[in-house]
């Protein structure tokens, strides 16, 4: 039996908990309800139908008390009064809102619903969809863990939920993982949708398994689905990636005969494929057909052809296409400018390159490491080492970290002017700043030493290369 002093201490602790509860948002809500009339006899009857032990446990959690049993045993009169007070207030809310007592109690405490497995599942799947739709999911391990959790849910998520995850992992270019995950879904008896099969087909095409891509098309038809533009665009992309442009053209013709009009993405894929195999003229003709067909051409199609023209040293044609692109209201982006600046610098057309750089500044298109590396490389090859160093300095001032290409271009510039000490300093600076030299960097420096009769230094670098993971070739 508790001594009088212990009982008094218990009273103090219990009053503190009661006061804390009454000052909480839940307690204030109950006090507000208490001020309104209610059927006392009915409320008391409903209140006493609940187990006192369970009630005191919940009160204990709300008031952050450490021991629920202590609330029910110390100073019994006070505790019973507190529990009875608490339950009657909730009963008033139940009558008013026409809800079962337990449902309302869960709403007030915010615990039961959150701890419900089904509620947790709904919230988790919403989080999955949000991350996939916003494309904020960039870690494949995290994505795979989420997918594994989905596989162990009961009931299983819908195929739409799985499609979101498969699409997100495919965007991360982990194509084999997507194929493996699809097999797991299939083993659980979940029927794929057209979206699922399109994602699977896309992965096969990127992995150069075009035959499997076409087998997925057969599955789509077998299941009674109709292939859509995404289905056919995937196959066209797969054919173009394999260099089967003629096959891609035949597939487009087949699409049109079956009532599928190619869209801008279809033609853009064709343009990209044609440019990759050097058929720039055919790509331009296709682009003109697209314009005549009232397709809403995007920047990607123009950028692809401009880049291909510049690589084919057809810079004038590239500039003409730039003007045409602007006349249609499509403004060039950083990719467009980089392709053109590279093409102009290859010809030594500084005035035109400077004009584009000024245009970039006016349109607030910030140059990146590729833009400035192009300039450093060209200036060094033209013997304008001072200007190249100034561009290099501007990069660092703007917080644009030079990469291996940038450093290698500057090292080459020093070697061309027989300034081997400066070349070595730049090489060492690259290493100190955490930018690892590659095979080209070593070759430039070794070549510079050999031309300046520094055979010993060249041999030292040559012997160092295997230790740095370089694979030497003849």
UniProtKB/TrEMBL annotation:
Q: Which spans does this entry mark as compositional bias, Basic and acidic residues?
A: 13-38
InterPro entries named in the record: PPR_rpt (IPR002885), TPR-like_helical_dom_sf (IPR011990)
| Region annotation (Disordered) ranges | 1-38
Q: PANTHER family annotated for this entry?
A: PENTATRICOPEPTIDE REPEAT-CONTAINING PROTEIN 3, MITOCHONDRIAL
Protein name per its UniProtKB record: Pentatricopeptide repeat-containing protein
Q: Which residues cross the membrane?
A: none
Identify the species of origin: Lithocarpus litseifolius
Ranges for the PPR repeats: 193-227, 228-262, 263-297, 298-332, 333-367, 368-402, 403-437, 438-472
Q: Name one Pfam family in it.
A: PPR_2
Q: Among its keywords, does the record have Repeat?
A: yes
Presence of keyword Transmembrane helix: no
Q: Which UniProt keywords apply?
A: Repeat
The family note in this entry says: Belongs to the PPR family. P subfamily.
